[in-house]
Design brief:
By secondary structure, the chain is an all-alpha fold. The two termini are 44 Å apart. Helices cover 49% and strands 0% of the residues. Among the domains are: 200 residues, Serine Threonine Protein Phosphatase 5, Tetratricopeptide repeat (Alpha Horseshoe), CATH 1.25.40; 154 residues, no CATH class; 68 residues, no CATH class. The protein has 31 helices and no strands.
C-alpha cells in the first residue's frame, strides 16, 4: 500500500519499518465493488494482481504461485486487507509480529539476549559458582530502556568482585551490552572488539556479531528525526555503515551457520538500505524471497520489509533483475495517484516500451510479461482490445495460480469493456476453477455486475446461480431488484432468513417511498407477527463485505407494522396512513403523516436512497421508476395549495422550516431552498396562523 503517490517521501521510512498509522493499509476501508481498480483505496484488495491493490498483496499473491501454498475459501468474502491475507495464508505468524513494548528498537533483543547470556554462563564449568551466580544476577537485574546512558549502571558496579580471567571476559561483555542498549556505541564497539579473541566460543561469536550491530546503530544516530523519519543516506555515518557491512560479512563468512545468521542477513539488508545501495539491497531481497524455506511467519514479515525498504526506491529506479519485484513496481506505476492539492497525476505512468524492456528479466516467470503488457494496455492506455490479443481464453481450468487467475480476470474485464456478449459465459466458466483463497469472490462479483447490467438480476437468485456470496446478493436486492424479484425472494423458503427479510424490507421501503401504496398494503401481510422493532436497518455492505455476518434476524421489519408515530399532529398508524394515500395519493394529511412516519422512524437521508455510481455493483438504473418521496417537496406542495386546510398548511410551513434546523442542513431531501425562502415561510406561518401551536413553537428559521 505504501506507494500512495507521495514518491518524494519514498525514502522517509522509519528506522525499523514502522510507519505512521495514516500510511497503514488498514487505516480506512471503503469498498469499491468493482472488479478492476487503478486507484488505491485501502482494504480494496482482490485476489488478482492489479494497480489498486496494496503492493504487499500483489507481491504475496505472485510469490504464492512458487510456494504452492494452497488455501481455499468458499463464498462470503470478496475484498480483504493485507493482515487478513497474510493471516489466512500463514496463521502461524499471529504471534510473531511483536516483541513487546520495545518492538522495533535495539532493546527489542534485551530479553532474548539476557536468556542467551544466562545460558552461556551456566554452560561454562570453569567459572567459580559465586562468579557464575553474580554474572547471572547482574544480567537479570539489568533492564535498559534505550532512552539514556545510565540505566543499569548501579548493577554493573557489582561486577568488580569478579576475579577470574574468564569471569572478567563475561563481565566485559555485560558492560559492552549495556553500553549498546544505552546508546554508547563507541564504548560498545571497543568492548566487543576486545573479546573477538576470547577463549569462550559463545563470547567470541556473539561479540563479533555485536560489533557490526553496534556500528549499524552508530551509523544511524543522526539519520532520523524526532518522528522517526529517515533523512536519507546522506545523513548516515559513512565510516560506521561501511564498518557494519564488513562486520556482518565477516561474521557470515566465519559463522555461515551461526546463531545469528538470519539476524545478520536481515541487518545487512538494513545496511544496504541505510547506505542507499539499491543494487545490493534488491539483489539481497531477490535471493531471500527465492529461498524455498522462506515460508510461514517469515514471508509476511519479509514482504512488509520489502515494502518499507525497497519498493519505493525501485519505483524511481527499476534496476532490479528479480521478476517479482519488477512486477510490483510495474503495477504500482500503473496506479493513478493524485497530488492531494492538485487534481492531476504526480508522475507519469509506466509505458509499454518500459515493460517491453523488462522482457529478459521477466523470462523466468512465463506469462508475467504478457500480463504486465495487458495490464498497461487496460489500466493506462485504455485499450481493452490489446488485452484480448495478449491473453488467450483459458477459462476452463480446474485451478489457477494467482498469476493465471489475474490474466483471465483481466481478459474478462476487457470482454466487458468492448461489450462482448460472451463475457457472461466466460465468467460462468471461470468460476469453476476459482478455488484458491479469495478467487471465487472476484468472479462472483464480475458475474453479478454482468447480470445486473444485462437486465438479468433475477438470474443471480436462480436456483443454479453461481453468485453465492451473500453480500453481493444483498447489494443487488438493495439497489437493482424490482418488486417481483423482491417479493419472490421474500417468500422463498429455500433461502436464508436474512435474505428473505432483507428482500421484504427493501420492497416495503421502496413501495412506501415511491408511491406504490396498494402494493405496500398487499405485501405488508408478509411481515411476521414476531418481527423485530428497532431503528432503521443500516447495512454495512456499502462500506465493506461483512454485512452477511450480522444476526439473521437483524432486519427490523416491525418498523412497518409496530412503529408508534403518535405525535402532536395526531397521525394514525402507518397502515392507515397508506390506506389514506392509496385512496387519494394527493391527500394533504396522508402526505404529512407519511412524512412524519419517515421522520420519526429515522429514514431521513437514508442510505438506501443514495445509489452507487454507475461503475459499481448496484449502480444500474433503479427499477422503481416513479419519483422518490421527499418530505420537503411534500411540504412545498401543500404550502403552494392555498385551498389546503389551515392546520395542514401551518404544519407544512413549520416542518418545511425545520427541514433545515438546527444546523442549516436539509434533512428532508428534494430541491434545496435558500435562506430567504425559509425566512418567508417562517414569516408566513407567524402572520397567517399566529394562534396555531406550530407558529407558537417555531422560534427561529435556519
Amino acid at each position: 500500500m505504501r506507494f500512495n503517490g507521495l514518491v518524494s517521501c519514498g525514502l522517509m521510512l522509519l528506522a525499523t519499518g514502522w510507519t505512521p498509522a495514516a500510511a497503514s493499509s488498514d487505516y480506512f476501508e471503503a469498498r469499491t465493488w468493482t472488479v478492476t481498480n487503478r486507484n488505491l483505496i485501502s482494504g480494496n484488495n482482490l485476489a488478482l494482481m492489479q494497480p489498486g491493490n496494496d503492493t504487499r498483496v500483489n507481491l504475496m499473491l505472485l510469490l504464492q504461485d512458487d510456494r504452492r501454498k494452497v488455501a481455499t475459501s468458499g463464498p462470503g468474502h470478496v475484498f480483504f486487507n493485507w493482515g487478513e491475507l497474510s493471516a489466512s495464508l500463514y496463521p502461524e505468524q499471529s504471534n510473531s509480529d511483536s516483541a513487546g513494548f520495545y518492538d522495533h528498537s535495539r532493546c527489542q533483543t534485551n530479553e532474548t539476549g539476557r536468556d542467551a547470556f544466562v545460558q552461556a554462563v551456566r554452560s561454562v564449568q570453569r567459572l567459580p559458582e559465586a562468579e557464575r551466580g553474580l554474572l547471572i544476577s547482574v544480567r537479570q537485574a539489568v533492564d535498559p530502556d534505550c532512552e539514556g546512558r545510565t540505566a543499569g549502571s548501579e548493577e554493573i558496579v557489582r561486577l568488580a568482585a569478579i576475579q577470574t580471567p574468564l569471569g572478567q571476559e563475561f563481565a566485559v561483555y555485560l558492560r559492552s551490552a549495556l553500553s549498546f542498549y544505552n546508546g554508547d556505541f563507541d564504548a560498545a564497539t571497543r568492548g566487543f572488539s576486545s573479546l573477538v579473541g576470547a577463549k569462550n566460543d559463545w563470547l567470541k561469536e556473539t561479540s563479533l556479531y555485536m560489533i557490526a550491530r553496534s556500528e549499524v546503530n552508530r551509523s544511524q544516530a543522526q539519520a532520523f528525526d524526532e518522528y522517526g523519519y529517515f533523512a536519507g543516506p546522506q545523513a548516515v555515518g559513512q565510516g560506521a555503515i561501511r564498518n557494519a557491512e564488513r562486520g556482518f560479512n565477516l561474521y557470515l563468512k566465519i559463522y555461515p551457520n551461526g546463531s545469528y545468521q538470519q539476524s545478520a542477513k536481515g541487518l545487512l539488508r538494513r545496511v544496504y538500505w541505510l547506505a542507499g545501495d539499491t543494487d545490493k539491497l534488491s539483489n539481497e531481497y531477490a535471493q531471500v524471497l527465492d529461498q524455498p524455506g522462506m515460508t510461514g511467519a517469515k514471508l509476511p514479515v519479509l514482504i512488509q520489509e520489502v515494502d518499507d525498504k525497497l519498493l519505493s526506491i525501485l519505483a524511481l529506479d527499476s534496476s532490479t533483475s528479480d521478476p517479482e519485484l519488477l512486477a510490483m513496481v510495474a503495477l504500482y506505476r500503473m496506479r493513478k495517484p493524485y497530488d492531494p492539492y492538485e487534481d492531476e497525476e504526480v508522475k507519469p505512468a509506466i509505458s509499454r516500451s518500459e515493460i517491453e524492456a523488462m522482457q529478459g528479466r521477466l523470462a523466468s516467470r512465463p506469462g508475467l510479461l504478457e500480463y504486465l503488457l495487458a495490464a498497461q494496455a487496460f489500466y493506462v492506455a485504455d485499450d481493452p482490445k490489446t488485452v484480448l490479443q495478449l491473453i488467450p481464453d483459458d477459462a476452463r481450468q480446474s485451478r489457477y495460480t494467482y498469476l493465471d487467475f489475474s490474466r483471465q480476470v483481466l481478459r474478462g474485464a476487457a470482454l466487458e469493456a468492448v461489450g462482448d456478449h460472451n463475457a457472461r459465459g466466460f465468467w460462468r466458466q471461470l468460476v469453476n476453477g476459482a478455488d484458491r483463497l479469495y478467487q471465487r469472490g472476484v468472479v462472483e462479483l464480475a458475474l453479478a455486475m454482468n447480470l445486473e447490467r444485462g437486465d438479468a438480476v433475477a438470474d443471480v437468485f436462480a436456483a443454479n446461480s453461481a453468485v453465492e456470496t451473500p453480500v453481493l446478493r444483498e447489494i443487488l436486492l438493495q439497489y437493482a431488484a424490482g418488486p417481483p424479484l423482491l417479493r419472490k425472494q421474500a417468500k422463498d423458503a429455500g433461502v436464508g432468513k436474512r435474505e428473505r427479510d432483507l428482500a421484504l424490507y427493501v420492497l416495503l421501503y421502496r413501495q412506501l417511498t415511491h408511491g406504490a401504496y396498494a402494493g405496500f398494503l398487499g405485501d405488508l401481510d408478509l411481515v411476521p407477527a414476531n418481527a423485530k422493532l428497532d431503528g432503521p436497518f443500516y447495512n454495512s455492505s456499502t462500506e465493506n463485505d461483512y454485512g452477511y455476518e450480522e444476526e439473521p434476524d437483524s432486519i427490523p421489519l416491525g418498523l412497518f407494522t409496530k412503529f408508534d408515530q403518535t405525535n402532536e399532529f395526531g397521525c394514525p398508524v402507518l397502515k392507515q396512513t397508506v390506506q389514506m394515500l392509496a385512496s387519494n395519493p394527493k391527500s394533504d394529511r396522508g402526505q404529512l403523516c407519511l412524512a412524519d412516519y419517515l421522520r420519526l422512524a429515522g429514514f431521513d437521508r437514508y442510505w438506501l436512497d443514495e445509489r452507487p455510481d454507475g461503475g459499481r455493483l448496484g449502480g444500474s438504473k433503479s427499477p422503481f421508476l416513479t419519483p422518490e418521496f421527499s418530505r420537503l417537496e411534500a411540504y412545498k406542495t401543500i404550502i403552494a395549495n392555498r385551498n389546503a386546510k389551515a392546520g395542514n398548511r401551518a404544519y407544512a410551513l413549520y416542518r418545511a422550516v425545520w427541514c433545515y434546523g438546527p444546523a442549516g442542513i436539509n434533512s428532508c431531501g428534494g430541491v434545496e431552498v435558500e435562506e430567504p425562502q425559509r425566512a418567508a415561510w417562517f414569516r408566513e406561518l407567524k402572520r397567517q396562523y399566529p394562534a396555531s401551536r406550530w407558529a407558537q413553537k417555531l422560534k427561529y428559521y435556519w
